[in-house]
Amino acid sequence: MKSTKELIAFLQEAVNHLEFKSQPAGLYEPLAYTMSLGGKRVRPLLCLMAYNLYKEDVETALNPALGIELFHNFTLLHDDVMDRSFMRRGKACVHVKWDENTAILSGDALQVVAYQYVAQAPAAVLPACLELFSRTALEVCEGQSYDMLFETKKDVGEEEYLEMIRLKTAVLLACSLKMGAILAGASEEDAQHLYDFGIHIGVAFQIKDDLLDVWGDPAIFGKAIGGDIMCNKKTFLLIHALKNADDKQRESLLHYITSDDIDRAEKVQAVTALYEAVGVKEECEAKMLYHQQLAMDALDALSVSEEKTVHLRELAESMMKRQM
Amino acid sequence: MKSTKELIAFLQEAVNHLEFKSQPAGLYEPLAYTMSLGGKRVRPLLCLMAYNLYKEDVETALNPALGIELFHNFTLLHDDVMDRSFMRRGKACVHVKWDENTAILSGDALQVVAYQYVAQAPAAVLPACLELFSRTALEVCEGQSYDMLFETKKDVGEEEYLEMIRLKTAVLLACSLKMGAILAGASEEDAQHLYDFGIHIGVAFQIKDDLLDVWGDPAIFGKAIGGDIMCNKKTFLLIHALKNADDKQRESLLHYITSDDIDRAEKVQAVTALYEAVGVKEECEAKMLYHQQLAMDALDALSVSEEKTVHLRELAESMMKRQM
After folding, report:
1. Is residue A103 within 8 Å of residue A63, measured between CB atoms?
2. ipTM over 0.90
3. Domain range holding A137?
4. What's the Cα-to-Cα distance from B218 to each of B105, B208, B214, B319, rounded to whole Å?
5. Confidence class for position B262, pLDDT limits 50, 70, 90
6. Contact A112/A77 with Cβ under 8 angstroms?
């Protein structure tokens, strides 16, 4: 069984050697650019780790794993157009560096390339891999659709929010793990447990993201604290704060999240203080730990020996303890 | 063997019964809307006709054929965003009826749905079908990329133009036919001949399109004559006209195609007169007939009896004789 470090190195090498056609440059250069921006490659890593629970020849799972990473980058490319973002991982987004049409069309091509890689799964499991991948791809679109809808929706409930992040973030992590299991010929039960593990770490990961945006260490976080607060984003924290607040606190919170002309420092400080006053930090941390526990329970249910699951447990823990 | 009419009815029924998920409505309603706009469904028809040269159970080829039609409609949806078009088949484009983000995201989902249908090819031929489909999908993106590039490129040569329409239009027709052949278990040679047939009818079809835009019968054509002239589009006609023209004619032509403030009737009349003076109508008609002949030669080379190819020949002829 390979160490996480070995798998990351193996993956990084493969990502660095991804090759795209060269012409027309206006179509393919943005693909190479997008894939060169980096990222933790956590999705293909999860795919290889799941595969490696059952089989040693991880190279069999490499291309489908890369397909998922390519797909993930395609979604970022198009999301950045839809969200009017300017920067991605410290560099200009494709629609900024080139233009919007280039971003749309290159994204379309990147989705096709993602399918080309997934389609290199061995023929015996190809239909199952494709079925999982396409279903997940649609769910990711659904998540983005709900996310955009929630921007203008006044009352987003906790359940709706959780369903949105399940679709937008968690299902692709879950798909990565399940595809590793399918490629390795694992039982349907194990494949489902790994899928569930992915869902729960995905949800916990997103709650952690919301927490870091408010209480992260600015020196480590890598971007300005309070970004979600400044753009009035409906995060898990805000939804809980609005629920927990008394009338006066709610009025104050609504004042801040519907005003765009308040000084950044003042707004971030005031909303953070309100969050702390109504106890959402503790509540959200508890919710995160709850999903982390469910993730560990899913690993406990696997048919493989517990020691084999150590790497996945460590990865899940590092994702929750991260400061950036 | 089924008649073309029977196959069209079979396909239309299937397209009418396509079902999409219902939620989120903002994601899936545009898909149903797009597929309800109509169209001649010529790509899935070609797929079924090719299949039917070898086998009778055309329902086996239905889902992959629908996948190609879904993909074609996805490209129209995103092309309309990129080209800033307002109308498609007499109705508002998705990005007009909804908004641009909806069009981008629904298009992404439609491409996934297209793959879901193609992936229903029998397991034995699934890798070959996917390989063909993905390669073609990338080529279609390449065609759109060149088409956008040519809008601002000053000197587009005939070869470049032909390569662009091969990619943008012809390869998907060719893919439809070849996929029918692969699904039916035809020989590689036959599959390639059918592919070539598709390429040549595609190129001829596009030249016909350019001709109709200038010399079509306004009462039949369905849209205003001279649309390409008004938006200074680099068509096969314009490329040939610039090549054939003497200095004075070229100067006049360049004057018209670089001016946006000339009265429509005057501009269309003047450019049409220049086209006629330099003989491009005859030249382009000859080029169209040349590709039509190559298409027929490809059918001649098939291993099936000539009488079986009658439907394909008739379809190709009707595509060239069409007035709209």
Report:
1. no
2. yes
3. 1-169
4. 36, 15, 10, 18
5. confident
6. no
Same domain, B114 and B221: no
Query: Smallest Cβ distance to A126: which of B127, B137, B148?
Result: B127
Q: Which of residues 223-242 of B touch A (CB under 8 A)?
A: none
AA letter at B251: E
Each residue of A39-50: pLDDT tens digit? 999 999 999 999
CA gap B52, B65 in Å, rounded: 12
> How far is residue B33's CA from residue A23's CA, in Å, rounded to a whole number?
34
* pLDDT tens profile B157-216: 999 999 999 999 999 999 999 999 999 999 999 999 999 999 999 999 999 999 999 998
Residue from the list B104, B113, B138 with its beta carbon closest to the beta carbon of A112: B138
pTM of the model: 0.96
Q: Which residues contact B78 (CB under 8 A, 6 or more apart)?
A: A104, A105, A108, B103, B104, B107
Q: Is A311 within the bounds of a domain?
A: yes
Q: Is B33 on the interface with A (CB under 8 A)?
A: no
* Token pair in block for residue B100: 């641009």
Asked if residue B67 belongs to a domain, the reply is: yes
pLDDT tens per residue across span A136-161? 999 999 999 999 999 888 889 999 99
Q: In this complex, do B119 and A108 lie within 8 Å of one another by their Cβ atoms?
A: no
Q: Which of A23, A82, A108 sits opposite B105 (nearest CB)?
A: A82
